[in-house]
Specification:
about 270 residues; alpha/beta; four-stranded mixed beta sheet; 4 strands
Length: about 270
């Protein structure tokens, strides 16, 4: 699956990195993730899969339960305890960095990326920035993942209280979020590092001619990263002031390139 990434300056030296919303991404095949603990155990025990595959199945199961619980809180009546918990959760989610949201969007199903950027930017700089955010993500989210896992046993002690254990579920969510961001960082770094441009001549073609003859399938391999300058994107951002893009321009960009407006605005408002 190819993912379209959109990169552009949003305020001063701040750049926005976002993935176009895929309407089919949220539609997971029915029956892939079990809905009950018994179904989860049956799927894990009946199929001989690597430990990593079973771990991902467990994470997907927990994620599905968390999503359903969140939807339940969102639909709760105004003024209720659940509704207040949902409002508090929204405030906590607003503090999540946009780079984490971007890295989480690079799922394991992504096999290549198409990077859309304004032609006023140097494509080598675009690749360098993407590589930097991926490398930084592997370091930061690995550290935060260990910290979140360490806090899980401590916050579980609040289960004895008759109130909803918000600290435990928040730390559980952060553990899942950091794990997904770490996976996305490693995936993006791999795709960016394997970037190739078939139209650009290689200075080592003559020296490696004999090797290419032995391995002709390498010539037919599709690039995992395609840089695509967009004149439309440039026209939208060219009149930006020193204060950065205004909200109306950001909304127009999000409509044209299928981006999440709230995620893009986070880049502009990031301190």
């Amino acid at each position: 699956m190819r993912a379209r990434l959109v990169v552009f300056p949003i305020k001063g030296k701040k750049w926005c990195f976002s993935r176009s919303v895929d309407p089919f991404a949220a539609q997971s095949p029915s029956g892939v993730t079990p809905t009950t603990v018994r179904g989860l155990w049956k799927k894990i025990s009946s199929e001989s899969k690597p430990i990593n595959a079973n771990a991902e199945l467990l994470v997907d199961f927990i994620s599905d339960k968390m999503n359903k619980a969140w939807v339940g809180l969102e639909k709760s009546p105004d003024g209720s305890i659940k509704n207040k918990i949902h409002g508090f959760g929204l405030k906590l989610l607003a503090r999540v960095k946009p780079s984490e949201i971007f890295l989480k969007s690079i799922s394991k199903e992504v096999t290549s990326v198409q990077v859309t950027y304004p032609p006023s930017l140097d494509p080598r700089l675009v690749r360098r920035r993407l590589r930097h955010i991926a490398m930084s993500g592997t370091i930061l989210h690995k550290k935060y993942l260990v910290g979140s896992v360490t806090l899980l046993p401590l916050t579980s002690a609040f289960m004895v209280l008759p109130l909803p254990n918000i600290p435990f579920f928040w730390v559980l969510f952060r553990t899942y979020s950091h794990w997904r961001a770490l996976q996305g960082s490693e995936k993006l770094l791999k795709l960016i590092s394997n970037e190739s441009n078939p139209d650009k001549p290689d200075s080592t073609d003559d020296a490696d001619e004999s090797k290419n003859k032995k391995k002709p399938e390498q010539k037919l391999q599709s690039p995992t990263c395609i840089l695509l300058p967009s004149e439309e994107l440039y026209q939208l951002i060219r009149d930006a002031s020193e204060e950065g893009l205004d909200e109306a321009t950001i909304v127009e960009i999000c409509k044209s390139f299928d981006l999440n407006k709230n995620d893009v605005l986070k880049y502009r408002n990031l301190v």
